[in-house]
Design brief:
Elements lengths: L1 H19 L39 E5 L11 H10 L6 E7 L11 H6 L6 E7 L7 H26 L3 E4 L4 H6 L1 H21 L4 E3 L1 E3 H4 L27 E5 L27 E6 L13 H15 L4 E7 L27 H11 L4
Parallel strand pairs: 1-2, 1-9, 2-3, 3-4, 4-5, 6-7, 7-8, 8-9
Helix pairs in contact: 4-6, 8-9
């Protein structure tokens, strides 16, 4: 009790002194000398920019597909590294998925949902089906059987995610080649889906996708003869916001220098819509293409950039983050990517990084 009384007395005295005292006057110090505002330093330009055949980038770039390093024997850490790396390829990340693959309760494929967990990129979505796996009877009736469900999936994606670009039909003209009558059903379903997508997501650009080399009547390394069919573009009327294509000129040309000047611009005779390449690449290994090397891949990139100036280009998307080594089409696609299967960058990767360093205008 005595300690408490002494403490109370001490506090009262302290408060009394504080109340009666004036704070000491602090003499003014010297007036600070104004410092100049630091001048922002320009970001050093990638020196390879000067080797690119464009002086500004007016289009988006990115990569398509889920292919981590060491695929198909990837570890969990390889997948996490992949998700963290997409933004190093550009602004876009392409998801090309079967429309009915591992759907959730809303009918949205797992691959689509997964894309929207990836940070730093804008997914574009392409849903389709593989006509070459269908019998002729199945192909002829595919949209009669599956059209409503296909449309429902497309609208569900648009409603939930409002993607910048939504593509219905991956290389849809391959379906046209398989079944012209079935393709007429596809066009009908597409047009219905287009209107329903616009109702729930007006700003989404809706398109179908074409294999450009087949459409040109080329694609000889595909093992099939293709008749030119640019006229299929007209079937969609005014319900194409973009013309999206996959582009593999190595099907017909042994070196990038052989790719003709009208390789892209020929499309402009049939549509004035902007053009987006959703898959592109050039092999760095193998013997089926005249020149398959890392330098040829660099030359291909430069040639495509040259040709991009001949059209209104919306985007250029490279196929696969890493070489997949799956033996598809006799191995033609095994070495198209900008990085090897073990994540080692190829020579063209540095030029792609130079392209990425150019801000989109």
């Amino acid at each position: 009790m005595k300690k408490l009384t002494l403490f109370v007395v001490f506090v009262v005295v302290l408060l009394t002194i504080s109340a009666c005292s004036q704070p000491p006057r602090i003499p003014p110090g010297p007036t600070p000398t104004p410092q100049p505002t630091p001048t922002p330093q320009p970001i050093p330009q990638n020196p390879l920019v000067k080797e690119l055949p464009i002086t500004q980038r007016t289009f988006f770039i990115g990569v398509a597909g889920y292919v981590p390093k060491n695929f198909p024997n990837s570890q969990a850490s390889d997948w996490q590294d992949l998700f963290n790396s997409y933004s190093t390829y550009g602004e876009l990340m392409g998801v090309h998925s079967a429309w009915n693959d591992k759907q959730d309760a809303e009918g949205i494929p797992q691959n689509v949902n997964m894309a929207y967990q990836i940070k730093g990129v804008t997914p574009y979505i392409a849903i389709g089906f593989e006509p070459d796996t269908l019998s002729q009877a199945q192909a002829d009736s595919y949209m009669q059987t599956n059209g409503d469900a296909f449309k429902k999936t497309a609208v569900a994606i648009a409603k939930k995610y409002k993607p910048g670009v939504l593509i219905l039909g991956v290389e849809s003209n391959r379906y046209y080649e398989k079944s012209p009558s079935g393709y007429e059903d596809f066009v009908r379903v597409y047009k219905e889906a287009y209107d329903e997508i616009k109702a729930v997501s007006p700003n989404t650009k809706v398109a179908t996708n074409f294999q450009l080399d087949y459409m040109r009547g080329a694609g000889k390394l595909s093992g099939r003869t293709h008749n030119a069919h640019f006229d299929v573009i007209g079937k969609f009327g005014d319900k194409l916001d973009l013309i999206t294509v996959t582009a593999y000129p190595f099907f017909d040309y042994g070196s990038p220098s052989e790719i003709p000047d009208n390789y892209l611009s020929e499309i402009s005779q049939y549509s004035s819509k902007p053009i987006m390449i959703t898959e592109m690449g050039w092999p760095t290994e193998g013997t089926r293409v005249g020149i398959s090397s890392e330098q040829a891949q660099v030359d291909f990139l430069k040639r495509l950039l040259q040709l991009s100036k001949t059209v209104n280009t919306y985007g250029l998307v490279w196929l696969h983050p890493h070489d997949a080594k799956l033996g598809v089409a006799g191995g033609l696609f095994d070495s198209l990517s900008l990085k090897k299967n073990d994540d080692t960058p190829k020579k063209a990767w540095e030029y792609w990084q130079a392209l990425k360093s150019m801000p989109k205008s």
